[in-house]
Amino acid sequence: MTWDVAVRCAGRRRKLPTGPALGLAAISLIIAGALLAPLLTPHSPNLPLPDGMTPDGMPKPPSLAHWFGTDNLGRSMVARVLYGARATLLVGVVSNTIAVVVGTLVGGIGGMLEGRAEAAVMRFVDLMLAFPALILAIAIASIIGPSLWNAALIIALSNWTWIARVVYTKTLSIRERNFITAARLLGASRWYLFSRHLLMHLAPIMLVWETLGIATTVQMSAALSFLGVGVQPPTPSWGNIIHDNQNYFTVAPWTVLIPGVFILVLSLSFNIVGEYVHEKMEALESRERRPETAEDARERFGEIEHAG
Amino acid sequence: MNRQFFGFVAKRLGQGAIVLVGISIVTFLLLYVIPSDPASLIAGRAANPDTIARINAQLGLDKPVWLRYAIYMGHLLHGNLGTSYVERTQVARELLSRLPATLELVSGAIFWEVAIGVSLGVIGGVWRGRLADRLAMGFAYVTVAAPQFVTGLLLLYVFGFQLGWLPLGGYGGLSYLLLPSLTLGLLNAAWHTRVVRSEVVREQGEPYVEAALARGVSRRTVILRHVVPGAILPVPTLVGLDFGYLMGGAVIIDQVFGWPGVGQYMWQGIQNTDVPVIMGVTLFAAVFVVVANIIADIVSYFIDPRIRVN
User: Whose CB among B109, B184, B259, B273 lies 3.0–4.6 Å from B254's, allowing a Cys bridge?
Assistant: First the structure.
């Protein structure tokens, strides 16, 4: 990165609109909370507090000593939510990364193939799209047995199809462009075209999905945990905190609403930030269509680095 | 035009049939390839190897895979989705008995998503960039990000528990339907909002709108008589697709509200690791999606003349 580009990036960063800025802040805070959980709370997420229950054995409402109150077993909700962020984020990010990689490979390969092979790959994608994602995920989770890594794999398995569709459409437009034809005329192999040219041009869209997709995978991981087929207790996750406490929601609504609000904020933030990245990429692409000058190219690379 | 129409329908039906066969293969593979041990589930933990072998033979699990697929497919064509491992009842019959409750829930949800989604979309598009638009879009963002079970439990807490206006779950008249259908509808309302909003914005930029305004037609009339009817063209297609997705069972809604629909059957299947039930519901859900897709295509063929040209 040359110096002037770095300066320009720094200048741009200040212009980040309020929405994406807030989203980014919320994501950073949640990640920091998950990582620093042992420093932020003296309590263990799995041990009941000595004063964690009311005399009738009910969860305690939020107070100065315990900001988020206690749960159905008298454990500190602050500790549960902070440690729960780890499992929730882990499943969300891992599953989304797998989905993006698989989706890009399948969609990209489908787009680079021709004729029957192309049709076969894409009909398979369409076929998998016919299964409602959550139903498919629940079905597989309940059969292979619930665990954190299984949840991540299953969510990836039910989410890669959308990404493959988008990447395929994108690839179709890329493969018609002059530099691909030029490379092909120079004798580039299909693998070379795929790895050196196509993947480079798909990188922005992968970045978009890497952010936008987490909004969905976080929600799905919460949904699986809520149904008891996701992350298993005693490991806390935001979904299984709600699962454990849903019978108490009338007497102790905070046990359900607090983790619920965290899921909402995390998903909302990834959505807003993802859409912002998406808009930026679209703007870049419409600029790409006219013949590119050296100045444009420098700006383009600068901006991609900035977004990354 | 008639001949072209039948050609179009025949082509879509043919594609649909191929997808359905593919779905049956995928479901079959999931059902039998994923490691699970139905025989020991049925016999219990203390079963001896002989019993397990006998149950495997009884279920046909000792036959080669292709033969098992043929038998499975034969059963499917007769409308037989298999027998529950745990309850020993016909999965297809159980599914059918839960269809009315799910149909009721889905109709309610579609009512809400169209009512909320279209009105917010029109508001957002007409007052683009103003406060009303920001509120409508903010609402759409939040409802998309809110997990169904949190929305559901929150609505139950406020309207069922605190205010006591509506029952705390169960199945019955309209008062029971209100909250679960609203929760389910909110999820897709945001989608309608976004589509309708962008269509309203696009439609307002059309020359005929400017022409009508120039002729002195009031803005209100132009919007209500011209812009809105044009902008809601995609709604029937969206509704068709949503219908397909929702009919597959709202596991979370059924669980939160105790609604006796297809989703609750799935839930029972999950609790017992009852593979034929789980796979029956999955297949049922996918079939609905495919059928709804075909119907949506045919409906939009009627509504939108542009498709006929292509």
Answer: B259
Query: How far is the C-alpha of A240 from the C-alpha of A179, rounded, in Å?
Result: 51
Beta partners for A59? Answer: A53
Q: Does the beta carbon of B43 lie under 8 angstroms from any beta carbon of chain A?
A: no
Cα separation, B1 vs B216, whole angstroms: 38
Q: What SS3 state is found at A174?
A: helix
Helix (H), strand (E) at residue B97: helix B91-126
Q: Which residue in this structure is represented by tokens 């100065």?
A: A64
Nearest to A190 by CA among A256, A91, A109: A109
- Please identify which residue in the block is written with the tokens 């709604």: B235
Cβ of B196 under 8 Å from any chain A Cβ? no
**Inter-helix orientation angle A77-112/A199-226, to 10°:** 140
DSSP H stretches of helix in A113-228: 115-129, 133-144, 148-175, 178-185, 190-192, 199-226
Range 259-298 of B in CB contact (< 8 A) with A: 266-267, 269-270, 273, 275, 278-279, 281-282, 285-286, 289-290, 293
Q: Which long-range contacts (CB under 8 A, 24 or more apart) does A109-113 make?
A: A109/A194, A110/A164, A110/A168, A110/A171, A111/A167, A111/A168, A111/A169, A111/A170, A111/A171, A111/A172, A111/A174, A111/A175, A111/A198, A112/A171, A112/A175, A112/A190, A112/A193, A112/A194, A112/A198
Query: Within a 10 A sphere around the Cβ of B50, how many other Cβ atoms?
Result: 8
State yes or no: ipTM above 0.85. Answer: no
Percent of chain B residues past pLDDT 70, beyond the cut: 90
Check if B91 contacts A (Cβ < 8 Å). no
- pTM for the whole thing? 0.83
Q: Tell me the pLDDT tens digit for each residue of A202-256.
A: 888 888 888 888 988 999 999 998 888 888 888 889 988 998 888 888 888 888 8
d(CA B235, CA B243): 12
Residue A202 C-alpha from the chain's centroid = 18
pLDDT, tens digit, for every residue of A75-120? 888 889 999 999 999 999 999 999 999 999 999 998 888 888 888 8
Which residues of chain A have a CB within 8 Å of the CB of B24? none
